[in-house]
Amino acid sequence: MRGTPEAARVYILCVAVCAALSALPAAVPGADTPWGTLGLLAALCVACDLPGRHRLLGGSVPIGAGSFFPLLLAAAFLLPPSEAALVAVPGALAGRVEQPPVAARRIWRAAQLALTVAAASWAYGLLGGPAALGGAGGAVPNLPYALVPACAAALVFSLVWAALEGGILATAERVAVRHAWRGPAAGAVGPHLVHALAGLMMAVLWRSTYGPVSALVVLLPMYISCWVFAQYHRRHAAHRATIRALVQAVDIKDGYTRGHSERVGRASELIARELGMEESRMEALRFAGILHDVGKLGVPTRVLRKDGPLTPEERRVIELHPEYGHEIVRGIGFLDEARAAILHHHERLDGSGYPYGLAGEQIPEFARVVAVADAFDAMTSTRSYRRGRPVPAAVEELERCAGSQFDPRMVRALARAVDRHGWSAAANTVTSEEAPAGLPQQKRTAQGTQDTGTAGRPGQPR
Fold first, then answer.
1. Whole-number CA gyration radius for the chain
2. Element (H or E) spanning 26, and its range?
3. Distance between CA atoms of 2 and 314, rounded to whole angstroms?
4. How would you class 187 by CB atoms within 10 Å of its CB: exposed for 0-12, middle for 13-18, buried for 19 or more?
5. Where are the alpha helices (DSSP H) in 28-181?
6. Which residues of 307-330 are buried (b: 16+ CB within 10 A; e: fewer)?
7. Structural contact between residues 205 and 217, judged by C-beta atoms closer than 8 angstroms
8. pTM of the predicted model as reported, rounded to 2 decimal places
């Protein structure tokens, strides 16, 4: 456990001791422990972890005992608390750990799951779950009533798991106490209720005349669905990482708009919600807003950071950034409609924009949304060379230019969204290397053409 903070060591030790005490009755000599059932369930937990450890079977996506909760809840329904606690231990100790300290993480995971499963089993037994479950001796399961203790056990499982997870975040990750439990608790109850239903089906089949083998009818498809779900989340995380890397590259190159991309993505999503777009399109639109200026990576840094007026040639170079951006993201399939927004977000409704001079409905819907979000954030953000406009003044300027530069429908949607949710104007801090403090506004034509006269001004390169 070297490298683990002292508070985390003490916390892990306390949880491990409590877990050992909860499992102790099952190990006492003379205890009537069903080692066959316990051993089979524990073996299944270890088996569920094997694909996560094997590279050829998707080793980068572990979905073993630590995350395959239906099997653990089935153990809570089939066994008393002390015995159910032992089921989770072998899989947790054998599970794959990708980050150090490996020993501390394995001990913590085993102790956390042992306590969580024991608590769920205790709640299940307290509400008469074992009697409602029936048995191989001929007792018919009381399925309507059996749902009550099963759901209660899932709730206890979720609360104990979230409480223990919050404790380790507070001690090991030094997350503020008021935030440590909020994250784990927020998204745990719903999934665990679904896991409980699958676990209950497994337990009913396990206790039936067909025996433990029949439980695989539930285990196998549930495990495959969890694997597919994990693959989806991993792919989604890879998408976000790709976008984050591109945005960070733009922010490093063009310090004057640092944070601008994220805010444009947020404003674009607000507009999309007001327009009633589907969730999948909203996400693509947020990506479009975040990546709208990625083409700046193709513009020379000396042009982006120039203090004085742009020459006609430099202006033409700046105006190529939508096409550069489109080329950069052309091969990123998941962006879908976002690619068109990146290419056309500087087109104007009256046809005087660039790069192709599209007009009206020729401009893709995503591009019309991003154009409004881009101009709004540019006007409301405070930069080193000028203060941002108040939000009402920025909305008024957008409304003034609706119909000529901006789509009136998008402007109205932004106005409603800002009125409903508010907007926090952002300050953009520029380092001394990028711009000397107090530089007059008129010196900033290279960086401030869109910022200082966003709507209704000719020749805006950005």
1. 29
2. helix 6-27
3. 56
4. exposed
5. 35-53, 69-78, 81-94, 102-126, 129-133, 143-172, 177-180
6. eeebeeebbebbbebbbbbbebbe
7. yes
8. 0.55
User: What distance in Å separates the CA atoms of residue 73 and residue 149, rounded to the nearest whole number?
Assistant: 12
pLDDT for res 186:
56
Spatial separation of the C-alpha atoms in residues 450 and 462, rounded to whole Å:
6
Domain with CATH 1.10.3210.10 in the chain: 254-452
Hey, CA dihedral for 151, 125, 23, 74, is it positive or negative?
negative
Rounded Cα distance between 148 and 145, Å, is 6
DSSP state, 361?
G
Give the total residue count for the chain: 462
User: Is the CB of residue 285 less than 8 Å from the CB of residue 341?
Assistant: yes
pLDDT digits (tens, 9 = 90+) for 243-301: 878 878 887 777 666 688 889 999 999 999 999 888 878 888 988 888 898 898 888 88
* More confident site: 177 or 435: 177
Fold of 254-452: Hypothetical protein af1432 (1.10.3210)
Specify which residues 383 forms β-bridges with: 386
| Residue type for position 424 | S
- Taking residues 17-24, what's their average pLDDT? 92
Q: Which residue has the tokens 């290397």?
A: 433
Contact at 8 Å (CB) between 114 and 22? yes
